[in-house]
Amino acid sequence: MRGNLPMVLGVCLLLAGAGRSVVMADGAVGKTSSPGSTVTPDTPAPETAAALTFPGLIRKGVEEGRLGNYDVALSLFFEALSIGETTGEQRKLAEAKLEIGWIHRLMREDERAVRYLDEALHLFTELQHSRGEAYCYNNLGLIEARRQNSEAALRYLNLAVAKFTEVGHRSGLYMAQQYLGKVYAKLNQPDRAEQLFKRSLETSRMIEDANGTADALNSLAEVQLSRRQFDSAQRNLIAAAKVATDAESKEALRTNHRLYSDLHTARGDFESALAHFQQFNRLEREIFDERKTRQVTQLQAWYENEAKEARIEALERENDIQRVAGNLKTAIGVGTGVLLALLAFFLVRYYRARLAHEETRQNAMQVRSKLNNLQRKVNPHFLFNTLSSIIQVGYEENPSKLEQLVHNLAELYRKVLYLPDDLSMPLSEELGLIENYLEIEKIRLGDRLQIDISIPPEHQSVNIPPLMIETLVENAIIHGIAPKESGGRVTIASRIEQRRLVVEVADDGVGFDPESSSRGFGLASVEQRLRLFYKNQASFQVSSTAQTGTTVRLAVPVG
Prior knowledge:
Layout: H1 5-16, H2 46-51, H3 54-66, H4 70-87, H5 90-106, H6 110-127, H7 130-146, H8 150-167, H9 170-186, H10 190-206, H11 210-226, H12 230-247, H13 250-267, H14 270-331, H15 334-394, H16 399-417, E1 425-426, H17 427-445, E2 449-454, E3 463-464, H18 468-481, E4 488-497, E5 500-507, H19 521-534, E6 539-545, E7 549-557
Parallel strand pairs: 2-4
Antiparallel strand pairs: 1-3, 4-5, 5-7, 6-7
Helix pairs in contact: 1-15, 3-4, 3-5, 4-5, 5-6, 5-7, 6-7, 7-8, 7-9, 8-9, 9-10, 9-11, 10-11, 11-12, 11-13, 12-13, 13-14, 14-15, 14-19, 15-16, 15-17, 15-19, 16-17, 17-18, 18-19
């Protein structure tokens, strides 16, 4: 519509018999980037131009990718790819495509990953850039290993090791040796696997890479466990734990506790095995929560930035409209002024209406996309916690209890898999999910868990985003009741206040200090979904006292 407005006004002038020409300056509107976009400003400010240099984009994208912020990383790498396409530099094109392929591999989008990695490999080969070729082979090998295509995985990873050795790139070499060793271990070739893990350990120690050293020691211990060489495995696990603790590497410590649990299980020491599994489970949840909390925070910042940019763009459009109207009044004669002013008035009204409609549609699409993205993260978080509960019961060696748990989990999975696609569902269906979840936790915690549910039937028809109340119940049990030796009670209640449904989930568990404790992924995701789904029409409050309990209260509009 914006491009056609000058032409429409010009036609109006001709129809009115105006003898003057009209000159209109079409002011450039700044473009903003969103995740996955390759749009850049036509004339960036100096500080923006510095931020968009190719090395800066690659460096920042790698940092975001390592933090698990894949959408942000892809956005940065596609901007880098755009620079490479503009300059025509083959090296930049190859590097950008390699990084895009890496992120798609981490996202398990294997077809896209292979396409970009093959293109990058072709360019690096033409450039005779062995280090780039090595990273392409490394990523392709990992994809083939995940696909269970062992022959192709071995071919690619051996090529990666050879190329990294050729250029003396030790940090890449120890990783490729690790990955190759793991493929041989899966193929039940422990001798070759152990040999590669020892080489990886030697390489990582040479470059003083603590994470690599801890990983290699853990991998060696895993091979030795498979051979029932328990004493050797324990020595390597002790060494790995020390290195990982000094480096504050939660990932390496998580693996270390899992392997220690396997070691004690194999020796028949189930009490020690359970203790290490609980440590593994705690670290797994912490790593997951930290990563998802970062993503939720980043999503919120991006959402607020988009709203700010939309307001700026609206003001610029308003200025354009006013400028067009001013130019029109200056250009027209007295006889035609009234007619053209009226025409301009109605055209401006029409133009504003069209802009408002388009902005509303675009905003709705963005909100829906963000809600879908957040919901995809909520579901695995919820299912992971239920699986962890079942595994802990499995260590108790109670077959009947375990059978009942698995049956309840199957019913729970069925309901979660068929959650609605329209971003909301009746509260009654949410309560059905909660009841299935509570059955699992009651079996695990026994009399330590007491539940009170007070949701009147007339409230159960209100629609809410899926797994919202369930997340609060899960949070109350895992972080409030389970750590308390005597257990406690979780209360779920609702009421109507000022045309809003108020739902409270309270527990008398261990509590926490809201001022000094950061919210985990569960609470952060509920607050973010409320903001996206209801804008400013919903509210969310958390009150807690250490050793007393926690109450979470949310309110959503009814009707």
